Amino acid sequence: MGDDDLIELRREIHRHPEPAGQERHTAALMAAAQLAADLQTPDGPLTTFVYAQVHREHDAVQGWVRAWPDSRYDDIRALLRAEAGSRVRFVDHHPPSVNSPEHARAGARHLDALLLHASYPFNGEDFGLFLERAPGAMFFFGVGEQGVPHDPDFVADERAIALGVEAMAGFLRARGAAL
C-alpha cells in the first residue's frame, strides 16, 4: 500500500467517524486494505490456500476441494485418505488460471490497474486449460451491480461492458504493436 493509498484510507475513516467499540465501517476498510496488501505480496499469506464445499447426498458425503498451488492436492488427498480410508474417491480437477507474469504486468501497466500476485485461481477453469497451452493473462473487470459472474443473481452493469471492451481492444493493439 503506497503513501497515497494510506492518506486516502485515513481520509475515508475521518469522513465516517464512529463511536469507540462500534467501528464497523473502519473495520471493513481495514480488512479490505489488509486483503489488498496480502494479494499484492508475492510470497504473502494468500499464495497458498484451500477452498472446499461439502454436502450430504443420500447416504454419502460429497464435495469438492480446490487448492493452490497444485502441489497441495497430494497433501489434501493423504489427509482425506487418513480420515476416511478407501471410501474416498478423487476425480481430476480443472487446472487453475495462472497468468503469465509478463502478460499480467503488461496488462496492469496498460490498463493502469492493480496487479495481484496472488489471485483467486479458480475463476476461469476453461481459461486455465487455455493457459496450459499458451501464455496469457486473465483480467477481472468489476462490472457487477449484484452477485458475481456465473451466479444466477449476477447483474452486470451494461455501461461497464463497453468500457471493458474498449480497454481490452486498446491493450491488444498496444501488445500487437510491441511485437
Notes on the structure:
- The chain has 179 residues and is an alpha+beta fold.
- 46% of the residues lie in helices and 13% in strands.
- The strands form two sheets. A two-stranded antiparallel ribbon has the order 1-2. It has a two-stranded antiparallel sheet with strand order 3-4.
- A hairpin with an 8-residue loop joins strand 3 (144-146) and strand 4.
- Helix 4 crosses helix 6.
- The mean pLDDT is 78.
What's the helical proportion of residues? Answer: 40-55%
What is the end-to-end distance? 33 Å
How would a textbook summarize the main sheet? 2 strands, antiparallel
Order of strands in the sheet with the most strands? 1-2
- Which structural category fits the helices and strands? alpha+beta
The strand count comes to 4
Query: In sequence order, what are the helices and strands, one letter per element?
Result: HHEEHHHEEH
Strand content: 5-15%
Q: What average pLDDT do the residues reach?
A: 78
Q: Helical region count?
A: 6
Radius of gyration: 20 Å
Uncertain stretches: none
Backbone shape: globular
SSE blueprint:
Elements (H helix, E strand, L loop, with lengths): L2 H13 L8 H16 L9 E9 L2 E9 L3 H13 L16 H11 L13 H9 L10 E3 L8 E2 L1 H21 L1
Antiparallel strand pairs: 1-2, 3-4
Helix pairs in contact: 4-6
